[in-house]
Amino acid sequence: MDCGVPFCHWACPLGNKQPEWQDKLYKGKWREAFQILDRTCDFPEFTGRICPALCEKSCVLKLSCDEPVTIRENEAAIVEAAFREGYIQPVQPVRNGKRVAVIGSGPAGLTVANQLNRKGYEVTVFEKYELPGGLLRFGIPNFKLGKNIIDRRIRLMKQDGICFKVNTLVGSDISAKEITSTFDAVCIAIGSEVPRDLPIEGRNLKGVHFALELLSQQNRLLEGISIPAKNIISCKGEKVLVIGGGDTGSDCVRTANRQGAASVTQIEIMPKPPIGNNPATPWPMYPQVLKTNSSHEEGCIRR
Fold first, then answer.
1. For position 116, which CATH number holds?
2. 36 and 70, same domain (yes or no)
3. Under a CB-based contact definition with an 8 Å cutoff, are residues 268 and 244 in contact?
C-alpha cells in the first residue's frame, strides 16, 4: 500500500489495525483479515456501515492526493465474507460461575455483553424498549443500517448464551435491589438520552422536535410498531428546517425527504468545507468543518 507512516489506526477510536487487515485482504487471505479485525472491533458489520471513517480522513492517500483507501467498505466486505463463509460461529466458553447484568442494549451494552461472555461470565442484558439495539435500532435510519444486520448479530449473541430481556425498565419493571442481589456485577450502559436543547423564543411551538423524536419514531413505524395517530410526526408536504449539520442532522434531512417534505433547509454554525484537497485545512482540522454526504444530494438547502 506504500503507506510510509500510516495514520489510519491512530485516528480510529477502536484502535483497529487497518494496515494489517487490509494487507491480508489484498493478498486474498480473508479469514486472517477477519481475525485481525475481530481482535479490536466487536461488531465490524455495524462500524463498516455507520462509522464516520476517521481512518479514511487520515489516510496517507487522503493527505497526499485526496483519494483515500476505502477502508470502511473494506471492513464491511471482510465481515460479510466472514458471515458468508462461516468464519463467525457461536462462542460458548467455559463459564466462571459469575453473573453480570448489563443495563442498556445499545452499542456500548452489546460490546460489554459480548466481551464478558467471551470471558466466561453469564450475561443478561436489560432493555427498556421493544427490541435490542439502542441507537442502532431506534436512532440510526434504515437507509444507513438495515435492522436485519442487527437481528443477525442478536441471534448470534443469543446462541453464545447471552440473555436479552426487552420491555424491562430497571427501577420500574424490576428493582435495582433485585438486580444487585441477583447478579455479581452490574454495568450501566444506558447512553445519553438528554438532547441538547435550544432555549430560544418559540422553542415550545407546535412542530418543533428533537432529532431523535423523528428518527426513532420513523424506525418504529418501519418495524411495524404501532404509534398513536396523534403522536405521529410527519414531514409530508412541510417546509422543514434542520438545525445542526452533523450526521444526525443529515439523517433528518434524508428522512424528511423520504417522508415527502416540500422543502428541507439545514443550518449549521460551522464553516463551509474546502473544495478539493485544500492544504489550508489539513487533518485534523478537516473533520471539524461542515461535512457533506449523500443525504444532501437528495435535496437540501444548506446555510
1. 3.50.50.60
2. yes
3. yes
